[in-house]
Amino acid sequence: MAQISASAGALLRHVRTGRARSRADLVALTGASRNTVSARVDQLIAANLLAEGGRGWSTGGRPPTLLQFNSRAGCVLAVDLGVTSVDVAVTDLSAQILATVGHPIDIADGPAPVLAEVDRLAQKVLAEAGLAPVDVCAVGVGVPGPVEFSTGRPSHPPIMPGWHDYPIPSAFGRFGCPVYVDNDVNVMALGEVGIAAAPQDVLVVKVGTGIGCGIIVDGRVYRGAQGSAGDIGHIHVAQPDGRTVVCRCGNENCLEAIAGGGALLRDAVAAGLPVSTTREVVELAAQGDGPTLELVRNAGRTIGTVLAALVNFFNPHRIVMTGGVAQAGAPLLAGIREAVYRRSMPLAARALEITVSDAPDLSGRVGAALMAIEEYLDDDAVQQTLAP
Ligand SMILES: [Zn+2]
Questions:
Q1: 209 with 350, same domain?
Q2: What is the pLDDT averaged over residues 144-169?
Q3: Are 261 and 339 found together in one domain?
Q4: For position 388, what pLDDT does the model report?
């Protein structure tokens, strides 16, 4: 079995995620000495991050004192920036939403007006929750485009004109705390696995106008060398009829150019269906319209052929579908399942679950909060908080 870290940050994480409820649990889980665990737990209690309360079941001898994470030791701001709307929430350190508000925006207006609106909403949610800017420990922001995670700057985002290289964290200077920015798919992926993320390997696939994938390895987001891991929308797919479709990236026959929301709308219009938005295509499919169902199922099959390759390569426990087109639910999922189970290796597919997100609207906010919390409470950061 792999060595389990017993750093103060790791001990805190074990309690936060419910893997340990007492000093004895932490000793058993990490293999560290009782003295080491107790000294670090005492530091975490002194820092107000852990609290003692209640008694657990005895397994002989004195019943253990239970440890609890003090999720009200601070709060985080979570910002879910979309193309046409923004949601801002303030949460405690367990990602429980204390107050939230949304507002329409146009991301193409550029960073200055959009981030001014975000600031207004942030003040509003803090006031509603009875909190002040000084209470904010960290800020998490999800944006609909590629981001250099280390600097929080978007990198040539195709649907965010004017945002290239803009230092988004600078807009939150008044809070005097760390700001973490990532693309919306990675953020939603964190929201899907939640705070008690079992150390699982999960792919969260967003099918909206574009197609992207958040990769969760052992409960954490995998970003790759430059932060662009999971950009599956531009994987090349073969077309059975030899047709060529040029993608917005300039290449031919990318997955999203054939099976994304825009492609679905294009094919529906070409087939003479009475629709003018992707949402209408999804609604028509939900009403059981035969030709629309077939289009959606075909898109599912195409997405499934790419996912089958990813399953063979990555062997995830779960795949979660999210985004506007995933709302089409059953017909899309049927096409995806058909292709994945037919094309992936039996060992990788045996216990694989493929589901649609339960709360697609909430996962952006919860995920942005979790991103901020995980970074704020990571090993090094906790070490610094505890340093005298
Ligand atoms: Zn492309």
A1: yes
A2: 93
A3: yes
A4: 65
